[in-house]
Amino acid sequence: MTTENAPNIPLGVPTAARMYDEALGGKDHFEVDRAANAKLYQVIGENRVRSTALENRRFLGRAVRYLSQECGIRQFLDVGSGLPTARNTHQIAKEADPGSRVVYVDVDPIVAVHGRALLADNSTKIVTADMREPENILDNAQVNGFLDFSEPIAVLFVAVFHFVTPAEDPSRIVAAFRERQAPGSYVAISHLTTDGMSEKEQQGWYAGFAGATVPLVLREEKEILRLFDGYELVEPGLVRPCDWHPEDDGSPRTTSLFGGVGRLARAS
Ligand SMILES: C[S@@+](CC[C@H](N)C(=O)[O-])C[C@H]1O[C@@H](n2cnc3c(N)ncnc32)[C@H](O)[C@@H]1O
Region (Disordered) spans which residues (predicted)? Predict the structure, then answer.
Protein backbone atom coordinates (compact mmCIF):
# COMPACT_ATOMS: atom_id res chain seq x y z
CA MET A 1 0.00 0.00 0.00
CA THR A 2 1.28 3.49 -0.77
CA THR A 3 0.15 6.86 0.54
CA GLU A 4 -2.48 6.96 -2.20
CA ASN A 5 -4.38 4.11 -0.56
CA ALA A 6 -6.70 4.65 2.37
CA PRO A 7 -4.80 4.18 5.61
CA ASN A 8 -5.97 1.43 7.91
CA ILE A 9 -4.67 2.59 11.25
CA PRO A 10 -4.85 -0.01 14.04
CA LEU A 11 -6.35 1.92 16.96
CA GLY A 12 -6.93 -0.86 19.48
CA VAL A 13 -3.45 -2.43 19.36
CA PRO A 14 -0.08 -0.85 20.17
CA THR A 15 2.27 -0.28 17.25
CA ALA A 16 6.05 -0.03 17.32
CA ALA A 17 6.01 3.36 15.57
CA ARG A 18 3.68 4.92 18.13
CA MET A 19 5.38 3.26 21.14
CA TYR A 20 8.74 4.58 19.93
CA ASP A 21 7.21 8.02 19.47
CA GLU A 22 5.99 7.95 23.08
CA ALA A 23 9.38 6.80 24.36
CA LEU A 24 11.04 9.71 22.52
CA GLY A 25 8.61 12.19 24.06
CA GLY A 26 6.50 12.70 20.90
CA LYS A 27 2.77 13.33 20.64
CA ASP A 28 1.66 10.90 17.92
CA HIS A 29 0.46 7.96 20.01
CA PHE A 30 -2.66 6.65 21.72
CA GLU A 31 -3.60 5.32 25.15
CA VAL A 32 -3.00 1.74 23.99
CA ASP A 33 0.61 2.63 23.12
CA ARG A 34 1.15 4.39 26.46
CA ALA A 35 -0.21 1.29 28.23
CA ALA A 36 2.23 -0.97 26.34
CA ASN A 37 5.13 1.33 27.20
CA ALA A 38 3.99 1.40 30.83
CA LYS A 39 4.66 -2.36 30.89
CA LEU A 40 8.16 -1.75 29.53
CA TYR A 41 8.78 0.99 32.08
CA GLN A 42 7.53 -1.15 34.94
CA VAL A 43 9.93 -4.03 34.28
CA ILE A 44 12.91 -2.32 32.62
CA GLY A 45 12.68 1.15 34.11
CA GLU A 46 11.41 4.22 32.31
CA ASN A 47 14.81 5.89 32.09
CA ARG A 48 16.43 2.81 30.56
CA VAL A 49 13.74 2.46 27.88
CA ARG A 50 13.73 6.15 26.96
CA SER A 51 17.54 6.16 26.93
CA THR A 52 17.57 3.17 24.58
CA ALA A 53 15.20 4.94 22.18
CA LEU A 54 17.22 8.15 22.26
CA GLU A 55 20.58 6.38 21.90
CA ASN A 56 19.18 4.71 18.80
CA ARG A 57 17.83 7.96 17.39
CA ARG A 58 21.17 9.71 17.91
CA PHE A 59 22.89 6.84 16.08
CA LEU A 60 20.53 7.32 13.13
CA GLY A 61 21.38 11.01 13.00
CA ARG A 62 25.15 10.45 13.13
CA ALA A 63 25.00 7.65 10.56
CA VAL A 64 23.05 9.81 8.09
CA ARG A 65 25.42 12.71 8.64
CA TYR A 66 28.45 10.46 8.11
CA LEU A 67 26.95 8.96 4.95
CA SER A 68 25.98 12.30 3.46
CA GLN A 69 28.93 14.42 4.54
CA GLU A 70 31.81 11.94 4.55
CA CYS A 71 30.72 9.34 1.99
CA GLY A 72 28.94 11.61 -0.48
CA ILE A 73 25.67 9.67 -0.38
CA ARG A 74 22.78 11.62 -1.89
CA GLN A 75 20.08 8.93 -1.90
CA PHE A 76 18.56 7.33 1.20
CA LEU A 77 16.00 4.56 1.56
CA ASP A 78 14.96 4.73 5.22
CA VAL A 79 13.14 1.45 5.93
CA GLY A 80 11.12 1.30 9.15
CA SER A 81 11.53 5.05 9.34
CA GLY A 82 9.06 5.64 12.18
CA LEU A 83 6.99 8.73 12.80
CA PRO A 84 8.54 12.07 11.94
CA THR A 85 10.37 13.58 14.89
CA ALA A 86 13.24 16.02 15.41
CA ARG A 87 16.16 15.73 12.95
CA ASN A 88 14.70 13.33 10.39
CA THR A 89 16.85 11.66 7.74
CA HIS A 90 15.93 14.11 4.97
CA GLN A 91 16.75 17.13 7.13
CA ILE A 92 20.23 15.80 7.93
CA ALA A 93 20.87 14.63 4.36
CA LYS A 94 19.91 18.01 2.94
CA GLU A 95 22.45 19.76 5.13
CA ALA A 96 25.10 18.15 2.92
CA ASP A 97 23.20 18.69 -0.34
CA PRO A 98 19.70 20.20 -0.63
CA GLY A 99 19.20 17.97 -3.68
CA SER A 100 19.52 14.74 -1.66
CA ARG A 101 16.60 12.37 -2.21
CA VAL A 102 15.01 10.40 0.62
CA VAL A 103 12.31 7.73 0.59
CA TYR A 104 10.77 6.79 3.92
CA VAL A 105 9.16 3.35 4.16
CA ASP A 106 7.16 2.07 7.10
CA VAL A 107 4.64 -0.73 7.56
CA ASP A 108 2.53 1.46 9.87
CA PRO A 109 0.20 3.68 7.81
CA ILE A 110 0.21 6.36 10.51
CA VAL A 111 3.75 7.24 9.42
CA ALA A 112 2.54 8.35 5.98
CA VAL A 113 -0.42 10.22 7.48
CA HIS A 114 1.76 12.21 9.87
CA GLY A 115 4.58 12.51 7.39
CA ARG A 116 2.61 14.30 4.68
CA ALA A 117 3.98 17.65 5.80
CA LEU A 118 7.42 16.32 4.90
CA LEU A 119 6.28 16.02 1.31
CA ALA A 120 6.13 19.79 1.02
CA ASP A 121 9.24 19.55 -1.13
CA ASN A 122 9.53 17.09 -3.99
CA SER A 123 12.76 15.44 -2.88
CA THR A 124 11.15 13.31 -0.15
CA LYS A 125 8.63 10.49 -0.46
CA ILE A 126 6.81 8.28 2.02
CA VAL A 127 5.66 4.78 1.16
CA THR A 128 3.64 2.42 3.32
CA ALA A 129 5.04 -1.08 2.76
CA ASP A 130 6.29 -4.14 4.60
CA MET A 131 10.03 -4.86 4.34
CA ARG A 132 9.33 -8.54 4.87
CA GLU A 133 8.22 -8.42 1.23
CA PRO A 134 11.21 -6.49 -0.14
CA GLU A 135 9.99 -6.58 -3.76
CA ASN A 136 6.99 -4.49 -2.73
CA ILE A 137 9.46 -1.76 -1.86
CA LEU A 138 12.11 -2.31 -4.52
CA ASP A 139 9.59 -2.64 -7.37
CA ASN A 140 7.42 0.20 -6.11
CA ALA A 141 7.32 2.98 -8.70
CA GLN A 142 7.49 5.61 -5.94
CA VAL A 143 10.80 4.09 -4.88
CA ASN A 144 12.55 2.99 -8.04
CA GLY A 145 11.10 5.80 -10.13
CA PHE A 146 12.56 8.27 -7.68
CA LEU A 147 15.84 6.75 -6.48
CA ASP A 148 18.45 5.79 -9.07
CA PHE A 149 19.63 2.29 -8.18
CA SER A 150 22.52 2.54 -10.66
CA GLU A 151 24.05 5.09 -8.25
CA PRO A 152 24.99 4.55 -4.58
CA ILE A 153 22.08 4.45 -2.15
CA ALA A 154 22.19 4.13 1.64
CA VAL A 155 19.55 1.73 2.93
CA LEU A 156 18.74 2.35 6.58
CA PHE A 157 17.33 -0.43 8.76
CA VAL A 158 17.55 1.40 12.07
CA ALA A 159 15.82 -0.37 14.98
CA VAL A 160 13.62 -2.39 12.65
CA PHE A 161 15.10 -5.89 12.24
CA HIS A 162 14.12 -6.77 15.81
CA PHE A 163 10.57 -6.81 14.39
CA VAL A 164 11.45 -9.58 11.92
CA THR A 165 11.31 -13.21 13.10
CA PRO A 166 13.87 -15.88 12.19
CA ALA A 167 11.19 -17.61 10.07
CA GLU A 168 10.88 -14.40 8.05
CA ASP A 169 14.61 -14.66 7.35
CA PRO A 170 16.25 -11.27 7.96
CA SER A 171 19.29 -12.22 5.83
CA ARG A 172 17.05 -12.79 2.81
CA ILE A 173 15.59 -9.33 3.30
CA VAL A 174 18.95 -7.56 3.48
CA ALA A 175 20.17 -9.56 0.48
CA ALA A 176 17.18 -8.46 -1.61
CA PHE A 177 18.14 -4.82 -1.05
CA ARG A 178 21.87 -5.46 -1.40
CA GLU A 179 21.41 -7.15 -4.77
CA ARG A 180 19.80 -3.99 -6.14
CA GLN A 181 22.42 -1.63 -4.70
CA ALA A 182 25.26 -0.24 -6.81
CA PRO A 183 28.88 -0.57 -5.60
CA GLY A 184 29.68 2.24 -3.17
CA SER A 185 26.26 1.88 -1.54
CA TYR A 186 25.80 1.51 2.20
CA VAL A 187 23.60 -0.12 4.81
CA ALA A 188 23.05 1.13 8.37
CA ILE A 189 21.57 -1.25 10.94
CA SER A 190 20.81 -1.02 14.65
CA HIS A 191 19.16 -3.77 16.66
CA LEU A 192 18.09 -4.62 20.23
CA THR A 193 20.38 -7.28 21.63
CA THR A 194 20.49 -9.90 24.35
CA ASP A 195 24.25 -9.30 24.81
CA GLY A 196 24.64 -7.26 27.97
CA MET A 197 20.90 -7.35 28.67
CA SER A 198 19.62 -8.93 31.87
CA GLU A 199 17.00 -11.70 31.78
CA LYS A 200 14.62 -9.28 33.45
CA GLU A 201 15.12 -6.62 30.78
CA GLN A 202 14.65 -9.20 28.02
CA GLN A 203 11.38 -10.30 29.60
CA GLY A 204 10.34 -6.67 29.88
CA TRP A 205 10.86 -6.00 26.16
CA TYR A 206 8.91 -9.13 25.23
CA ALA A 207 6.08 -8.27 27.65
CA GLY A 208 5.81 -4.72 26.33
CA PHE A 209 5.53 -5.84 22.71
CA ALA A 210 3.40 -8.94 23.39
CA GLY A 211 0.20 -7.42 22.01
CA ALA A 212 1.77 -5.16 19.37
CA THR A 213 1.10 -5.36 15.62
CA VAL A 214 4.63 -6.62 14.97
CA PRO A 215 6.47 -9.30 16.99
CA LEU A 216 9.70 -8.49 18.83
CA VAL A 217 12.85 -10.62 18.46
CA LEU A 218 15.98 -9.84 20.49
CA ARG A 219 19.20 -11.13 18.90
CA GLU A 220 22.76 -11.91 19.91
CA GLU A 221 25.60 -9.74 18.60
CA LYS A 222 26.78 -12.47 16.23
CA GLU A 223 23.32 -12.74 14.65
CA ILE A 224 23.21 -8.97 14.15
CA LEU A 225 26.69 -9.07 12.63
CA ARG A 226 25.45 -11.61 10.07
CA LEU A 227 23.02 -9.01 8.71
CA PHE A 228 26.08 -7.17 7.32
CA ASP A 229 27.11 -10.16 5.16
CA GLY A 230 28.16 -8.88 1.74
CA TYR A 231 29.11 -5.45 3.15
CA GLU A 232 32.39 -4.25 4.67
CA LEU A 233 31.78 -2.75 8.09
CA VAL A 234 33.19 0.76 8.34
CA GLU A 235 35.12 1.72 11.47
CA PRO A 236 34.53 1.16 14.36
CA GLY A 237 32.46 -1.88 13.29
CA LEU A 238 29.39 -3.15 15.10
CA VAL A 239 29.36 -1.36 18.46
CA ARG A 240 27.05 0.14 21.03
CA PRO A 241 25.31 2.96 19.13
CA CYS A 242 26.65 5.60 21.53
CA ASP A 243 30.19 4.52 20.55
CA TRP A 244 29.62 4.75 16.80
CA HIS A 245 31.33 7.97 15.63
CA PRO A 246 30.50 9.59 18.98
CA GLU A 247 29.79 13.29 19.13
CA ASP A 248 28.66 15.70 21.78
CA ASP A 249 25.02 15.02 20.90
CA GLY A 250 23.70 13.98 24.29
CA SER A 251 23.48 10.30 23.39
CA PRO A 252 22.62 8.14 26.37
CA ARG A 253 24.73 5.03 26.95
CA THR A 254 22.94 1.71 27.35
CA THR A 255 23.80 -1.91 26.66
CA SER A 256 20.51 -2.67 24.88
CA LEU A 257 21.53 -2.23 21.23
CA PHE A 258 24.21 -2.69 18.61
CA GLY A 259 24.64 -0.50 15.55
CA GLY A 260 26.91 -0.27 12.54
CA VAL A 261 27.33 0.85 8.94
CA GLY A 262 28.48 -1.35 6.07
CA ARG A 263 29.78 -0.47 2.60
CA LEU A 264 29.09 -2.48 -0.52
CA ALA A 265 32.41 -2.64 -2.31
CA ARG A 266 31.39 -4.83 -5.22
CA ALA A 267 28.15 -5.78 -6.91
CA SER A 268 26.83 -8.87 -5.07
C1 LIG B 1 11.64 1.59 16.72
S2 LIG B 1 11.00 2.34 15.27
C3 LIG B 1 12.48 2.98 14.53
C4 LIG B 1 12.23 4.24 13.73
C5 LIG B 1 13.49 4.83 13.08
N6 LIG B 1 14.08 3.88 12.15
C7 LIG B 1 14.51 5.21 14.12
O8 LIG B 1 15.42 4.40 14.36
O9 LIG B 1 14.42 6.28 14.70
C10 LIG B 1 10.70 0.91 14.25
C11 LIG B 1 9.85 1.21 13.04
O12 LIG B 1 9.88 0.07 12.17
C13 LIG B 1 8.61 -0.10 11.61
N14 LIG B 1 8.47 -1.49 11.15
C15 LIG B 1 8.35 -2.61 11.91
N16 LIG B 1 8.25 -3.70 11.13
C17 LIG B 1 8.28 -3.26 9.85
C18 LIG B 1 8.20 -3.91 8.58
N19 LIG B 1 8.03 -5.23 8.50
N20 LIG B 1 8.29 -3.17 7.46
C21 LIG B 1 8.46 -1.81 7.55
N22 LIG B 1 8.52 -1.13 8.72
C23 LIG B 1 8.44 -1.85 9.86
C24 LIG B 1 7.65 0.26 12.73
O25 LIG B 1 6.36 0.57 12.25
C26 LIG B 1 8.37 1.44 13.35
O27 LIG B 1 7.95 2.66 12.80
Answer: 244-268
Mean per-residue pLDDT of the chain: 93
Query: E strand or H helix at 260, and its extent?
Result: strand 257-263
- % of the chain residues with pLDDT over 70: 95
For ligand 1, whether the C-beta of 56 sits within 6 Å is yes
CA of 251 to the centre of ligand 1 (A): 20
CATH topology for the 16-263 domain? Rossmann fold (3.40.50)
Task: Give the confidence band of 1 by pLDDT, cuts at 50, 70, 90.
Answer: very low
Residue 2 has pLDDT above 60, yes or no: no
Are residues 13 and 211 in contact, defined by beta-carbon separation less than 8 angstroms?
yes
Best residue among 20, 131, 192 to mutate for probing ligand 1's pocket (most ligand atoms within 8 Å of CB) is 20
pLDDT of residue 101: 96
Find the Cα–Cα–Cα–Cα dihedral 91, 94, 95, 97, rounded to 10°. Answer: 180
To the nearest 10°, report the CA torsion of 108, 110, 116, 118: -70
Is the pLDDT at 232 greater than 70? The verdict is yes
